[in-house]
Prior knowledge:
The structure is a single chain. This protein is an alpha/beta fold. The chain has a single domain, classed as Rossmann fold (3-Layer(aba) Sandwich), CATH 3.40.50. It contains 9 helices and 10 strands. The strands form 2 sheets. An 8-stranded mixed beta sheet has the order 1-2-4-3-5-6-9-10, with helices on both faces. The protein has a two-stranded antiparallel sheet with strand order 7-8. The longest helix has 21 residues.
Amino acid sequence: MSTDLEQSFMSQGWKIAARLRIPAQAAPGQGRPTVIVLHGFGSNMTAGNVTGPCDEFDRMGYATFRFDMPGCGVSEGPRGNLICLEQVQCTVDAFRHLRTLPQVKGDAVVVAGSSFGGAVAVYAAAVESGLAGAISSGGWGHGERKFRGQHATPEAWQRFTAMLAEGRACRERTGRSMMVPRGEIVPIPLGLKRQLVTGSLDEFTAETAQSMFDFRAEEVVHQISPRPLLLLHSSVDSVTPTEQSLGLFAKAGMPKDLHLFGDTNHFMFAEGNQRVWRVVGDWLARYVPCEN
C-alpha cells in the first residue's frame, strides 16, 4: 500500500504545504524516481488534475510530490497574488527539498503540470538543471499571445488591456493591488467550471494578470535540452490556445515530444484518458525509468 506523508518546505519566506506519496513497490531506504505535480491557476493540490496524475504515477511505481503554491490552498503567502516567477522559484525550492529526502532519487525528479502549472513546469526545468525533465499538459509559453487567444475579439482585448492599465494605475496611485475576478483574466467555458476544485481562488491581483502577460517560457525552453520535454495539449482546447504548445515545441531543443489529443479538453489530466497515460508512461519509461 502506498504511503502518504505530510511535508512542508520554505520558499521566499513562506511555509509551503505539501504531500509526498511513496509507492507500495518502494523498498525500505530506497530512493524512488519522483514526479512533482503542479496545480493550475489559483487551484491547489487537491484538484483532480493533480490527484489524478499522482494516482497514475503511483501505479507506475513513481513517488509523487504535490504542494499548494504560495497564496493558494493552505500555504502561506498573499492570497490571490500569483506571480509566475515566484511559482517557478517555489517549484525549484520543492525540488531542492526533495533532494534531502532518502525516499527520493534526487537525480530522477521530473516536474509535471497542467495549464498555469504546465507553464511553470517548463520554466522551472529550464532554470533548474537538476530536474530530469518536464511534462506540460495544456501549458503555455508566451503570455501576451495566450491572452490574445483567450480574449479573441477586439472588444474583449480592449477590456483586458484596459484592466491591466487600470491595475498599474491603482498600484501607483494607492500602493495597493486592484482585485480582478478570475473570469476577467482567464475565461473558462461554463461546462468546464465543474473542474475547479473547492478552495480555488475567485479573485486575483491585477499584478497576477500582468505577471502572466509578461511570462515567456518560450524564451528559456531551449535550456531544458539535453534533458527531455513532453508537451501534451488538446487539439480543441477551450481554455489555453493549442498553438501555445506548438510554440514551445518549436523553440525547444531535443529530445522533445508533442502530442495533440482530439478526445480531451483543457483538464485532460483529470479526465483519466488512458491514451494520454500510455503516452506519458512510455515517455517516462524511456527517459526516467522506474524499476518496480
